[in-house]
Amino acid sequence: MSSSSSSEISVKQGTFDSMFFGAWVGGPEETPQPTAANVAAFERLQDRHLDVISVFSLWQYNDWNWTRTYANIAKQNGSILLVTWMPTPYTAADILSGKCDSYIDDFARGVKDFGDEIWLRPLHEANGDWYTWGTGTDGVNNSSDKVAEAFRYIVKRFRAIDVPNVKWVWTTNASNSGAGSSLTGAYPGDEYVDYNSIDGYNWGAAQSWSSWQSFSSVFSKAYNALSAYDKPLFIAEFASSEKGGNKAEWINEMFRDLPTKFLKIIGLMWFSQSKENNEGDWALNTSDAAVEAWKKGISAYPQAKR
């Protein structure tokens, strides 16, 4: 381990030479996706290139051919595609039983054929109770050790096919939900991970059970837990509500805290989509002040280079 700071170590281990900025760019469509138009609209909004573009690919519905559309959009934009690879409707035990082998192998061959760098994050937010692979959903079929082994199982199948252009992202939710859940219990081991990441949201007063939380309040516990690993660390999903506080100041405070409290974070990916009916309005542009705070914050960082 070098004598450099932890943040410098992370940058050297990662794809980019400085803080990268990405997003899920949910558009106005009924089923939004990161189309070229939605990517361009978000880049105009923030007045900056998107280094990483997020897409959510569900095993039940979305094969590599579907995903490749967005990989091509990212490539044409000079960006990397981060695939949140969701094993719906399967459990960790299902994956370990071989039930999904054909799907995994087909996807692996597709990624290999694509050739350019792709980031995959399977089994994300497993320390929750909202996905079929969550420890809090099914503590028997998704015990932490089984989720960790399922992650390794997927990586091993890619390695057997020799896919050199994939980067593996392991993700914990910022807080646990459900019996048996823990922030790092399902960690598969350094040999199987290129990047660690965290998902978290300031729900504000959007729900009856929620209250306003700063960026530090949302992320500190998970950040401290993942800082124990010598892996690049980024925020793969985050956003703030406008309800119950000042969203622009929330963003300003985040950028003030990053250099002092979160030195290992090398990337931020805003989840920009309005989900008023069942969650909250996570879009960046809920107010001009929020957009300006984001633009001011990211302008302090040089353009990331690969």
Summarize the structure in words.
Helix 3 runs parallel beside helix 5. Strand 7, helix 8 and strand 8 form a beta-alpha-beta unit. It is built from nine helices and eight strands. The N terminus is likely disordered. An eight-stranded parallel beta barrel has the order 1-2-3-4-5-6-7-8, surrounded by six helices. With 306 residues, the chain is an alpha/beta fold.
Class inferred from helices and paired strands: alpha/beta
Spatial gap, N to C terminus: 23 Å
The low-confidence parts are 1-12
Rounded mean pLDDT is 93
Quick one: overall form? globular
Q: In what range is the share of β-strand residues?
A: 15-25%
Query: How many strand segments?
Result: 8
Kindly provide the radius of gyration, computed on alpha-carbon positions and rounded to a whole number of angstroms: 18 Å
Task: Record keyword descriptors for this entry.
306 residues; alpha/beta; disordered N terminus
Topology:
Layout: H1 6-13, E1 20-25, H2 36-46, E2 52-58, H3 64-76, E3 80-86, H4 92-96, H5 101-114, E4 118-122, H6 144-160, E5 166-173, E6 195-202, H7 215-226, E7 233-240, H8 247-261, E8 265-272, H9 288-299
Parallel strand pairs: 1-2, 1-8, 2-3, 3-4, 4-5, 5-6, 6-7, 7-8
How would you concisely characterize the structure shown here?
By secondary structure, the chain is of the alpha/beta class. The chain has helices at residues 6-13, 36-46, 64-76, 92-96, 101-114, 144-160, 215-226, 247-261, 288-299, and strands spanning 20-25, 52-58, 80-86, 118-122, 166-173, 195-202, 233-240, 265-272.
